[in-house]
């Protein structure tokens, strides 16, 4: 397939990721990373770097998509900035450490870890296993530690962190709307630090394809960003017209199949 054909594929992936994010309220990284791994394999990229390249590229796309999300949530006054600030300190350190951790793992091992994570997220969606409020919001130190863990894990999986931070914030008695909005705000420092970390750890890797900056593949980044923001709004509107619970369960089954494919390959 020509570079133009591949770029059209990335435009379609951005549309799919944006729609899924708006429709199910999940980060697009859960869609982008698995599809990029498959696509990079199809393009003949080395299996040793395909997963690393998918993670870095996914985090780079979240830099752009999170800005739009933050503006929307801030306009509605839903972002708890007093929580975002202390969490951001931990997030930056954690995301850089996560990018470094991922660089130490082999490509096949990283793909296996991503597959296991996809299955866990899918099971959470199927079982609707959300923690009930059980404690108050901790102090700045506690929020920083929580942010460090969220940033570390997010940089390994190539996600914006909402899968982890929203349950944590609701457990801390933050209202769901505010938890989602605050998590979206935390997604920007996760993406910035994670993307920077992947540029650093992948810099001058001899197996990188052309048009790469570290573990970020520019054609995929541009194609995904070009369509994902618009389609995220489309997905959000679609969510009000369709049976969201049924669609979420269908998506969870797809995630399980993708996860099993990664675990068994």
List strands and helices in order, with pairings.
Layout: H1 3-24, H2 29-42, H3 47-75, H4 81-104, H5 107-127, H6 140-157, H7 162-171, H8 176-202, E1 212-213, E2 216-217, H9 218-239, H10 244-264
Antiparallel strand pairs: 1-2
Q: Could you explain the architecture of this structure?
A:
- It is built from 10 helices and 2 strands.
- With 265 residues, it is mostly helical.
- It has a two-stranded antiparallel sheet with strand order 1-2.
- The model has no long low-confidence stretch (mean pLDDT 87).
Brief account:
Helices cover 78% and strands 2% of the residues.
> How large is the radius of gyration?
17 Å
* Average pLDDT taken over every residue: 87
Strand order of the largest sheet: 1-2
Structural class: mainly alpha
Helix content: over 70%
How many β strands by DSSP? 2
N- and C-termini, Cα separation: 24 Å
Outline type? globular
Largest sheet: 2 strands, antiparallel
Topology pattern, helix = H, strand = E:
HHHHHHHHEEHH
Could you list the spans in which at least 5 consecutive residues all have pLDDT below 50?
none
Q: Into which percentage range does the β-strand content fall?
A: under 5%
Question: What's the total helix number?
Answer: 10
């Amino acid at each position: 397939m020509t570079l133009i054909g591949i770029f059209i594929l990335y435009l379609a992936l951005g549309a799919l990721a944006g729609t899924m994010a708006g429709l199910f309220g999940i980060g697009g990284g859960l869609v982008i990373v698995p599809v990029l791994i498959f696509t990079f394999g199809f393009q003949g990229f080395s299996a040793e770097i395909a997963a690393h390249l998918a993670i870095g590229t996914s985090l780079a796309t979240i830099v752009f998509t999170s800005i739009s999300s933050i503006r929307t949530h801030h306009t509605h006054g839903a972002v708890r900035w007093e929580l975002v600030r202390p969490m951001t300190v931990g997030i930056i350190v954690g995301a850089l450490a996560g990018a470094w951790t991922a660089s130490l793992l082999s490509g096949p091992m990283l793909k296996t870890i991503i597959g296991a994570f996809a299955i866990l997220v899918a099971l959470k969606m199927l079982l609707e296993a959300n923690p009930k409020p059980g404690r108050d919001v901790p102090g700045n130190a506690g929020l920083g530690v929580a942010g460090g863990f969220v940033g570390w894990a997010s940089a390994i999986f190539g996600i914006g962190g909402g899968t982890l931070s929203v349950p944590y914030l609701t457990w801390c008695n933050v209202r769901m709307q505010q938890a989602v909005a605050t998590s979206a705000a935390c997604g920007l420092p996760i993406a910035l630090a994670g993307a920077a970390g992947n540029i650093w750890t992948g810099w001058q890797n001899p197996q990188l394809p052309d048009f790469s900056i570290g573990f970020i593949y520019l054609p995929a980044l541009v194609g995904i960003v070009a369509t994902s923001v618009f389609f995220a709004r489309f997905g959000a509107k679609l969510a009000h017209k369709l049976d969201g619970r049924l669609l979420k369960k269908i998506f969870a089954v797809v995630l399980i199949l993708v996860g099993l494919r990664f675990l068994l390959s």
